[in-house]
Design a protein that fits this description.
About 45% of the residues lie in helices and about 15% in strands. It is an alpha/beta fold.
Length: about 350
């Protein structure tokens, strides 16, 4: 049926135009029976509301912005961000939102993008990955009162809704696993220490070491930037300290470090064991078999959108704080099968 109007849908469903409009705009204040009748007519007629008219009627753009602090090149080489984006995009599709995508690499990028993403009427809300350069952009957006969900705990959580995993506890459990397997010189390759993720995973490593009664040896700690290349060079830096196991704060860094270990003539896990963080697809490849802390990255992105829509529809206060579960996935790189047999927490 060509050129159907909302009035036509309402008439066929036996409801008022305003009721039909509320159904189309997902307004909860509609009876189940009326909603069902309208949806049946929409399905049978293949009716699609005019996007501009829908936006005007609801004063919403039905567009969500995803802001990532990455250059274009590093976005495509870091496997974490495409998976996060996949989850965000899937949730937007399911909720009938359009996704706007913004990459921020420098302070200049931030200054250029802020006026666009904060302009009234452009975006209904924003999912923002925790910036590496600090919380300035988060603070600016919070002041505009546009709904924002930060992926990753920011330094300043006052008035901020965010979603994260418990990075301290997760890292602690990863290192405790290595301690229980009998390793005594456990090193770590941290993420960037100018952000909460890198700092928290380092804190979890230190907590496990201290709890076991050991002193933290700074010679067994090297900073990376979550990339495979940084893991490779960090392991080279750590080798003179003779570590027998490494907790890397990302799978990418663990994979780079394993490559460096093998190039140095070390057997994995016979001479040096590894645990990563993320459970990216590469971690389960036969040539890698990386023990890792799994975080649900795609689901993380989907939950961020669900939380953002909650803010859009129900108000930004109180702030939402959501922690998602992680899980230790044991594979061959930690040497569990060689040392004590299968081991589960």
């Amino acid at each position: 049926m060509p050129n159907l109007t909302l009035e036509d849908i309402a008439k066929q469903a036996g409801v008022s135009r305003s009721t039909a409009s509320r159904v189309v705009n997902d307004d909860p204040n509609v009876s189940d029976s009326a909603r069902k009748r309208v949806q049946e007519v929409i399905t049978s007629t293949s009716y699609h509301p005019h996007a501009a008219a829908r936006s005007l009627a609801s004063q919403r753009s039905w567009m969500i912005g995803l802001v990532l602090p990455r250059s274009v090149s590093s976005f495509f080489t870091d496997p974490y961000f495409p998976r996060l984006t996949q989850g965000v995009a899937q949730a937007c599709n399911q909720q009938n939102y359009t996704l706007g995508f913004f990459l921020v690499d420098t302070k200049e990028d931030e200054n250029r993008i802020f006026p666009r993403i904060s302009r009234k009427g452009l975006l209904d809300g924003i999912v923002l990955q925790t910036p590496q350069m600090g919380d300035t952009l988060i603070d600016q957006l919070v002041k505009t009162e546009i709904p924002v969900v930060v992926a990753g705990r920011p330094f300043n959580t006052n008035g901020v809704s965010y979603i994260d995993v418990d990075n301290i506890t997760s890292a602690y459990l990863a290192v405790r696993h290595l301690i229980r397997l009998g390793y005594t010189r456990i090193g770590t390759i941290t993420g960037r220490l100018n952000g909460t993720t890198g700092l928290d995973r380092k804190a979890g490593y230190q907590k496990a070491i201290h709890e076991h009664g050991w002193e933290v040896d700074e010679n067994l700690i090297a900073e990376g930037d979550f990339t495979e290349e940084s893991g490779y060079f960090a392991l080279k830096q750590l080798l003179p300290a003779h570590p027998d196991a490494i907790f890397a704060a990302s799978d990418s860094m663990a994979i780079g470090a394993m490559r460096a270990a093998r190039e140095s003539g070390l057997n994995v896990p016979g001479d040096i064991a590894f645990v990563g963080f993320d459970d990216l697809p590469a971690a389960s490849q036969p040539e890698i078999k990386l023990t890792t802390m799994r975080q649900p990255i795609v689901q993380f992105g989907m939950k961020a959108v669900e939380t953002l829509i909650d803010l859009i529809e129900n108000g930004i206060k109180p702030s939402r704080r959501i922690l998602m579960e992680t899980e230790l996935v044991i594979r061959e790189s930690c040497g569990a099968s060689q040392k004590n047999g299968p081991y589960n927490h």
